[in-house]
Predict the structure.
Amino acid sequence: MPAAAKPSNEIAKPERASEMDILMPRLQLLNRRLYEAKIPALILFEGFEAAGRGDATNLLLSRLDPRGTSVHMLGAPTEEERLRPFFWRYWTLLPGRGRIGVFENSWYHQLLEARVDGDIKRKRFLQWLDEANAFERLLAEDGMLVVKFWMNVSKKEQKKRFKKWENDPAYSFRVTKEAWRQHRRYGDWAEAAEEAISRTDTHLAPWTRVESDDRRLRRAAVVRRVCEAFERALNSAAKLPAPPKAEPPQAAARVTSGDNPIDAIDLGVKLAFRRYEEEKGELGGRLSELQNFSYLNRVPVIIVFEGMDAAGKGGAIRRLASALDPRGYRVVPVSAPDGEEKAHHYLWRFWRELPKAGHWTIFDRSWYGRVLVERVEGFSRPEQWGRAYAEIRDFETQLIGSGAVLIKFWLQIGLKEQLKRFQEREKTEHKRYKITQEDWRNREKYPLYRDAIADMLLQTSTSEAPWTLIEANDKLWARAKVLRTAAAAVEKALQHARKSAGGFRI
C-alpha cells in the first residue's frame, strides 16, 4: 500500500504468543451471545492475493458455529448476476438476525477490479463507493454489525508466496494468471484500494487494515478485531432501551406538509365498454411487442401496484398479464413477511424477487408496506418507517440506474364505492374469499391510512420514479389507464436504451 497516515483502528503492536489461547474461546462465547441477542454480523475480507484472506476465514470458522455462519467466496459475477442490479448478488446472501455472513471478496473487489482494468472511470468509481456507503449504512441502521478487513501484503512477500505455491502441487492452483496480473499491477491496485478505503471508512462500517507478512500477528489481529466488534455490538444493544410498545395509530401524524395528492383525483371519470374493448385490444398487442423488445434489449421492467382495499389491483394485474408472454414475466403477491423475511431487512425479500434483464416482474403490493400498513398498525417504530422513505428512494434509484423501467400505480376509490364492493364480495360466493375482517378494520382506520398515503406519495414520487394515480371507481377506466401508462413508460425507456446503447455496466 502507498504510504499514508494510519487510521486509529490500525493493527500494529506485537502480541504475546499466548494471546490466541484467550481470544479463540472468547470468540466462541461472543458468537453465542450475538446469536442470543439476534444481532446479524457481516464480515468482509478484502485485500491482495496471498494476503491471508482464506486463512483468516478458516481461522474464524474453527470457532464460529457453522449452523449460523455462511461463507461466500465470490469471484467474477455469473451471467445470471450480471443480468440483475449490481448489489443483487450481495443482498441475496445477507445473513439473517443472529447469524454471521463472511464474504471473501465483496462489492469492493468487483469495483476495484473494474477500476484497475479501466472499465470504469474515476468519477463512476467514486459514485459506486458512495452507493456502497449507503448500502452499509442501511444495513447498520437496521442493526447489522459490519466488519471490514483490508488484508495487505508487500509486493515482495506476495511474489515470494506465489513462487513457493507454484512449486507445491497442493497449492499451485492458487497461483492463477489473474493473480500474477494483479502482482504486475500492484501499484495500481494499491492506489485504487487506498482511495476506496479512505472514502468508505465510516463509523458505522469502519475498515481494519491488517499487515499479513507475519502470519502469527495477522491471525491475532483478525480475531482480536472481530472480538472487539462483537463486544461493542453487544454492549450497544444492551444500552438501548427496550423497544417501546406500539403507539396507538393516532400518534402517527402527517410528516409531510402539502395537500394530499389523492384529493385531486377525479373519481367520476368513466370509460364506455366499447371504447375499453378497443383500447384493451390495441394496448394488449402493443404491450406484447414491447415485451419482446424489452427482452431483446435486455431491459427489465418492474411494475408496482398499491392501492386501497377492493380498488381493483387484481383485476388490473390480470388484464396487464394477459397481454404478456408468461415465459417472460412473474407476478409476486406480497403479504405479511414470514419468519425468514422478518429476520432480514425489509427490502431483502424484494431484492430477491427482482427480474433479470429483459424480464418483467409485477408486484401486487410491495416495499411500500413499510410506510403504510406497518406504520398505521404499529408493526414498525416511527424511526424505522420514517427512515424508510429515503431507503426506498435510494433503492428505486439503484433499480433505474441498473437500466430497469419502474412503474408505480396507486389505485384510489371512494369510501362509498369501497363499501359497495365489500358488500358485493360478501354476497358473491366466488368472491367471498377476498373480504376479511382485516379489510373492515382497515376501512375504519382510513383517516390514518389517508395520512400515510399522502406522506408516501409526496416523499417517494420522484422525477425518476413517479407515482401514477389511477381513478379506480370505474374499473374499465382504471384498467385501460394502467395498460396505457405501462405501454408508454416501456416504450419511452426502450427509446432511451437504444440511444445510450454501448455504455459499460458492471
